[in-house]
Amino acid sequence: MKVRLPAFVLLVVLLLSACQPARTRTGPVVIDRNELQNFADAFFTEQMKTLHIPGVVVVFVQKGEVIFAKGYGYTNLETAAPLDPEVSVMRIGSISKPFVATAVMQLVEQGKLDLQADVNRYLTTFQLKDSFPEPVTLAQLLTHTSGFEDPPYISNTDPQQVMPLHEYLAATFVARTHRPGEVYSYSSCGYDLAALIVEEVSGVPFDQYVDQNIFKPLGMTHSRYVLALPLPENSATGYFYQNAVQSPQPMDYDSGYPSGSIVSTAADMARFLQAQLREGCYDNICILKPATIAQMHQPQAATPYQGQNATFGFVEGNADGVRLLGHSGAIRGFGSILHFFPEHDLGFFLSFNEECWQTSACNIIAAFRTQFMAKFLNK
Asked: What DSSP line would sit under 156-182, residue for residue?
């Protein structure tokens, strides 16, 4: 398969290391909570100062429970409000995509969607053009192999400019530039199209579908798609550090919202992580069946980096013999990462309120994962 990779997706794949020789292990690692806290305290104290990050929130889960959760720094520099993993609401950017994939897989599980069917079967407001003989499938949308390339990213700071999802996609979707299944090209609009299909088949607006079928069952009470004012209570302020000044950033509102507009807390994301790690269930509530979760996590298409593959909603990698799955997110004023290690029944979510693309703040993500794995998993 050829690979075509836009610059803005580099964060997604670079966070996962290429294959390395595996070290000998005796079995799953159990993380010592005190040792983890000491590591995190030292790491974030140093990195936040070096990278000019106002605040970080992090949570770890293992074996069905939260083993560590803490906020560092501030949700808002002007008010000096501290970050709290329970209630501080962060923008998670493209970590919204695994929620789209989860919604699709729910309807696949119910027999309402077929991953290998032509997506035009499900579209009622418009149809994709037949640029090539091969149809586009949901499986290809979820693995960035549909042959579409994203139009230039445009967002608005005025929520009144947000269009209904079907109108936005009908107006912006362009003809395919590659045969389906031939090229890996990261596509947010492909995920937005998958979300529209969920909306049309379920008969429920996509943001409401996710709220009813993922957020509420998992008890993610602080999570939502932000499409309009007012902002959720305890929303963190995003910043942009430039010329020794931290500038507060406005909220973005995006018509292509499914792929990147979720806000959440670390505590809520811990529940989603546990459902991914525990066969689709959290606290005896299941959003997917074990077989469906297993299918969702299986590699489906190669990415540009050796040993890295797209699954339905995640990127799979191998770091020094440890299999990991995850997704990153970067949106104005914020950066985030979700990682989990199936072998160890372990995962973490990390989010910070500093501009990720135009500063060096993104470096904290790869540094944290690398140092954490070196200390706890690669012994």
From this structure: BS-GGGPPPHHHHHHHH----SS-TTT
Q: What angle is formed at CA 210 by the lines to CA 280 and CA 223, rounded to 5 degrees? A: 90
CA 91 – CA 78 distance, rounded (Å): 19
**Burial category of 116 from C-beta neighbours within 10 Å (exposed 0-12, middle 13-18, buried 19 and up):** exposed
- For residue 105, what are its two tokens? 């897989």
> Could you tell me if residue 142 is inside a domain?
no
37: containing domain: 2-95+208-377
Taking only the tens of pLDDT, the chain with its 379 residues reads 434 344 334 344 444 443 444 454 567 999 999 999 999 999 999 999 999 999 999 999 999 999 999 999 999 999 999 999 999 999 999 999 999 999 999 999 999 999 999 999 999 999 998 888 899 999 999 999 999 877 777 778 888 989 999 999 999 887 778 888 888 999 999 999 999 999 999 999 999 999 999 999 999 999 999 999 999 999 999 999 999 999 999 998 999 999 999 999 999 999 999 999 999 999 999 999 999 999 999 999 999 888 899 999 999 998 878 999 999 999 999 999 999 999 999 999 999 999 998 999 999 999 999 999 999 998 6
* Amino acid occupying residue 246: Q
Assign residue 299 the CATH number of its domain. 3.40.710.10
pTM of the entire predicted model: 0.94
Cα–Cα dist 203/195, whole Å: 12
Going by C-alpha positions, the residue among 333, 181, 331 that lies closest to residue 256 is: 331
Answer whether residue 81 is part of any domain.
Answer: yes
201 is a domain residue: no
Q: What are the respective helix, strand and coil percentages of the chain, to the nearest 5? A: 35, 25, 40
- How far apart (Å, rounded) are the C-alpha atoms in residues 222 and 204? 21
Closest CA to 322 of 297, 346, 349: 346
